[in-house]
């Protein structure tokens, strides 16, 4: 999996959010995206997923141009705000419903993702509506990985997680990285990212600054 970002610009109401940003992301790495509130981290993740249209520039994923050769980034798991999980269903039932869209994940894949994020005690109960913030976030992460997605885009993945759960999340994401997956995380808490990511990037004035090579 590789993503080539070429000179992308995103302007909303004449405000420049992403300003001629270029970068190459490669599989087998965890990229941590930091930057102050409003710097455009979520916007960049949305752009990579194909969820917004760019003002100019292009994003090429595995040689195919987003919004020309395909509508969305292929084979991608995301956590980007307002996840539409179903409150009246358990964790298992939620992923089971989602699995009906692509039909690539088995029950075993669902159980293994829920266990990987630490939800092994809550697979069948309670229903999602009785979940705490942290439990909900674990299910969000499970949702982004249970179909063996090759590109994983996570906005603030450690939100609501206690320190043991952050450790477990780090362990799980490192395993996925070692399998060659491309993982991009955004967080305004740079401590979490420092521990999670092997490449640290900062969004500033619409540009990406590589903190690892500084
Ligand atoms: N739908 C929208 N309409 C207008 N402006 C928007 C919209 N979505 C985002 N913005 C603006 O784009 C900029 C970047 O927002 P974004 O959510 O990407 O920042 P962020 O770095 O993820 O911030 P945070 O750390 O607070 O999550 C902000 O100035 C925001 O106000």
UniProtKB/TrEMBL annotation:
The keyword ATP-binding applies. One of its GO terms (molecular function) is ATP binding. InterPro entries: AAA+_ATPase, ABC_transporter-like_ATP-bd, ABC_transporter-like_CS, P-loop_NTPase. Residues 3-211 form the ABC transporter domain. Pfam families: ABC_tran (PF00005). SUPFAM superfamilies: P-loop containing nucleoside triphosphate hydrolases (SSF52540). Keywords: ATP-binding, Nucleotide-binding, Transport. Gene3D superfamilies: P-loop containing nucleotide triphosphate hydrolases. Belongs to the ABC transporter superfamily. This is ATP-binding cassette domain-containing protein. It comes from Lactiplantibacillus dongliensis.
């Amino acid at each position: 999996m590789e993503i080539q970002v070429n000179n992308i610009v995103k302007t909303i109401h004449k405000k420049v959010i992403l300003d001629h940003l270029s970068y190459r992301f490669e599989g087998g790495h965890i990229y941590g995206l930091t930057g102050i509130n409003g710097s455009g981290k979520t916007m960049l993740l949305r752009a990579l997923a194909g969820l917004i249209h760019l003002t100019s520039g292009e994003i090429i994923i595995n040689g195919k141009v987003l919004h020309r050769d395909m509508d969305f980034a292929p084979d991608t798991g995301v956590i980007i705000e307002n996840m539409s999980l179903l409150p009246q269903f358990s964790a298992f039932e939620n992923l089971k419903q989602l699995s009906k869209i692509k039909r690539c994940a088995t029950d075993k894949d669902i159980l293994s993702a829920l266990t990987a994020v630490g939800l092994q005690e809550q697979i069948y109960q309670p229903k999602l509506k009785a979940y705490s913030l942290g439990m909900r976030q674990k299910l969000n992460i499970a949702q982004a990985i249970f179909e063996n997605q090759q590109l994983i885009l996570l906005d603030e993945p450690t939100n609501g997680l206690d320190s043991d759960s952050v450790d477990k999340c780090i362990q799980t994401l490192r395993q996925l990285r070692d399998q060659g997956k491309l993982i991009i995380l955004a967080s305004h808490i740079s401590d979490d990212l420092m521990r999670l990511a092997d490449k640290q990037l900062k969004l500033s004035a619409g540009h990406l600054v590589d903190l690892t090579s500084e």
